[in-house]
Write a structure and sequence with these properties.
The chain has 336 residues and is α/β, with parallel strands linked by helices. The protein is 45% helix and 16% strand. Helix 5 packs parallel to helix 6. The longest helix is centred in the C-terminal third of the chain and has 16 residues.
């Protein structure tokens, strides 16, 4: 257990404990995954998938693929939006506040070409002035916490990230989540945790570190080495949704948790999405979950071949019939 995590931190006057976040991941931190994670607990806040600021004001939560939630998670849920127009982002933030979310997060990290071409996501890193304008517009539009998730920038140096962090804090951001990789890097090189320290030293608002935290020791080391206030977990949250309870509440997972989790994810996906989309989302998540196993590629291949949800359940049963060997650390070939 990590005592520091359980002490919590304050974000705009609200105590968040533990200081562990489930980081936003497109196509993965949807309402179904969040329900699964909530059944284990142990986190401080969760994020939605990134939502288009342009579309969000007119989105219908009953049918939207990304802008949907459970009422009981709203006190611990931040809605992430992307866009480059300050007015659009402000209108989207207003809708988010009206629905009762804990806060709104501005995506400045997605480096997908289609997003960056709009000047959004990591595209905003190229225009620090515009990035600060977006934060200021959102801050002026709502009273709930405003957070930002961002990367190092488009050049591998800490100075641009430090400068941007100062601009974002001055514009009204209440907390930052920093992923210390350059924007085009899709995890081909290790994140530079030294840059997290530099960002933390530059601002007086909470900073969450993010990037390759795979174990409790990694979490402790990031906190100690960088001085960050908390940690945002992405891929390990997908692979082991119970990891927050394990680190903060002393939860001890048994071998049975793996098949149960694999089946349960199918069940919750089926509750929120029609079968074809549910299965598509399951297969995307399953790659991360399969990284828990020595022969995880076999698991992923079995599920990939499933034509429907009942077949996916059968594939899960077939894999666990042999009591598969588990890896202490995730299979990085699957985690990429």
């Amino acid at each position: 257990m990590i005592p520091h995590m359980n002490r919590g931190i304050n974000i705009r006057g609200t105590k968040i404990a533990p200081a562990l976040l489930i980081a936003p991941m497109a196509g993965l931190t949807h309402v179904a995954f969040r329900e699964l994670a909530a059944e284990y607990g142990g986190y401080g806040l969760m994020f939605t998938e990134m939502c288009s600021a342009k579309a969000l004001p007119s989105e219908n939560p009953q049918v939207s693929a990304v802008f949907r939630w459970r009422a009981q998670e709203l006190p611990h849920l931040i809605c992430q939006i992307f866009g480059a127009d300050p007015d659009q982002m402000a209108r989207a933030a207003g809708r988010i506040e009206s629905e009762g979310f804990f806060g709104v997060d501005i995506n400045m990290g997605c480096s997908v070409a289609a997003i960056c071409k709009q000047g959004a996501g990591a595209g905003l890193l190229k225009e620090p002035g515009r990035a600060a304008e977006v934060v200021s517009a959102v801050r002026n539009a709502v009273s709930i916490p405003v957070t930002v998730k961002f990367r190092t920038g488009w050049q591998d140096a800490p100075e641009p990230a430090v400068d941007l962090a100062r601009r974002l804090a001055a514009a009204g951001a209440d907390a930052l989540t920093f992923h210390p990789r350059v924007a085009p890097d899709r995890r081909s090189r290790p994140p530079k945790w030294d840059y997290i320290r530099a960002v933390k030293q530059a601002v007086d608002i909470p900073v969450f570190g993010n990037g390759e935290v795979f174990s409790e020791n990694d979490c402790l080391r990031m906190l100690a080495d960088t001085g960050c206030d908390g940690v945002a977990i992405g891929r390990m949250a997908l692979a082991r949704p119970w990891i927050f309870a394990q680190w903060t509440q002393g939860f001890v997972p048994s071998a049975e948790i793996y098949p149960h989790c694999a089946h349960r994810m199918l069940d919750v996906l089926e509750k929120y999405y029609e079968p074809v989309n549910a299965l598509r989302r399951y297969k995307k998540w399953l790659v991360y979950f399969a990284a828990n196993f020595t022969y995880g590629h076999r698991f992923a291949t079995l599920v990939k071949g499933a034509a429907d949800i009942p077949a996916a359940h059968r594939a899960v049963d077939a894999f666990f019939q042999s009591d598969p060997a588990r890896s202490r650390t995730p299979n990085m070939n699957l985690f990429r």
